[in-house]
Amino acid sequence: MSFSISEIPDQSGRTVLVTGANSGLGFETAKALAARGARVIMAVRDEAKGLAALDLIEIEVPEAQLELKSLDLSDLESVQALSRQLHDEGVQLDVLINNAGVMMPPRGLTKQGFETQFGTNHLGHFALTLLLLDLMKLEGDARVVTVSSEMHRRGFIDFDDLQSEQGYSPTAAYAQSKIANVYFGLELARKCMAAGMDVKSVVAHPGYAATNLQYAGPTGLVRLFMPLTNALFAQSAEAGAWPQIYAATMPDVKNGEYFGPTGLGNMRGAPGRNVPVARAQDKEIAARLWDVSEELTGVHWSP
Q1: How many domains does the chain have?
Q2: Is residue 208 part of a domain?
Q3: Residue 303, in any domain of the structure
Q4: Distance between CA 162 and CA 115 in Å, rounded?
Q5: Residue 83 belongs to a domain
Q6: 174 is catalytic
Q7: Nearest Cα to 211, choosing from 54, 100, 93, 84?
């Protein structure tokens, strides 16, 4: 089974913001949606890499409607700055794809003092989403797609040590950030529904896809064996982007769903519906994490 860009409905007239659009899954997502007519806002941390990615897409998709915006999800001031810029410009969003992330680096801290993976992968996207929700077109199938990982199945939210101060494992911290993505996406779906907002919140994961994320963060034996495991098991970044593209565009997508590959243990293949691990569907944990995230970021739900 496979998937192709030609299956994506025409996206003409729709505006999509993709975080981390300069490489990997984000780049492939931006390129595919631009090829189907969407106006794509590429939100990137490194402007030079962002410009290079934009140029590459324009070579392959000459008619692409692309804009580059600066965004460092590890800095809440940068998140706030992008929100102000988009509001000042009167941008109306149809789709927000929370794609960017970091994976298994040595322990570090964001500008506001959060553990890097939790702060970037979860808190940065949490704040960005809440700040941009009022820009979503509420009458035209608006969607928020939050990209998680099957590593969420190994994740637990340690409310007593969210910042891994009592002990740091790159893998455990990554898994915590990825299950946080699932809790957030599903809780946002519930909140939008309760508030009567016509916004679908869905979660997607790429399966096992070969991207630069696997080399930018991991160190030691994990990095040493990454080329071998990629060669044996990984699908391409293009295929890894299929689930989030599907979640962002296809007409059968419903609020609160979870998408990923449908073949070989949900690690590769055509995109479709998956089911997150049972504890990621715990509404009490999701609500508690939401409250903590509001407190940490200073950004609050105001439908």
Answers
A1: 1
A2: yes
A3: no
A4: 8
A5: yes
A6: yes
A7: 100
- Predicted confidence (pLDDT) per residue in 205-215, tens digit: 999 866 555 44
Nearest to 253 by CA among 185, 302, 303: 185
Give how far Cα 268 sits from Cα of 78, 171, 186, 207, 209, Å. 34, 21, 23, 6, 8
Determine the structural domain holding residue 211 and report its residue range: 9-297
Is 144 in a helix, a strand, or coil?
strand
- Torsion-angle region of 264 (φ positive above 0: left; ψ -120 to 50: alpha; else: beta): left
DSSP lists the bridge partners of residue 260 as 272
pTM, rounded to two decimals: 0.92
| Cα of 270 vs its chain's centroid, Å | 19
Encode pLDDT of 131-173 as tens digits.
Answer: 999 999 776 799 999 999 999 999 999 999 999 999 999 999 9
| Nearest residue to 234 (alpha-carbon basis) of 259, 262, 269 | 269
Instruction: Provide the pLDDT for residue 211.
Output: 58
C-alpha 63/C-alpha 209 separation (Å) is 28
Cβ contacts of residue 103 below 8 Å, gap of 6+?
Answer: 117, 174, 213, 214, 216, 217, 218
Strand-strand pairing, 258-263 and 268-274 = antiparallel
Active-site residue, selected from the candidate residues 174, 183, 246, 258: 174
Per the document, the length of the chain is: 303
Alpha-carbon span 77 to 54, nearest angstrom: 25
The Cα 107–Cα 257 span in angstroms is 32
Cα(46)–Cα(69) distance, rounded to whole angstroms? Answer: 10
- What's the CATH number where 281 sits? 3.40.50.720
Which amino acid is present at 301? W
Q: Tell me the pLDDT of the chain averaged across its residues.
A: 92
In the chain, the amino acid numbered 25 is L
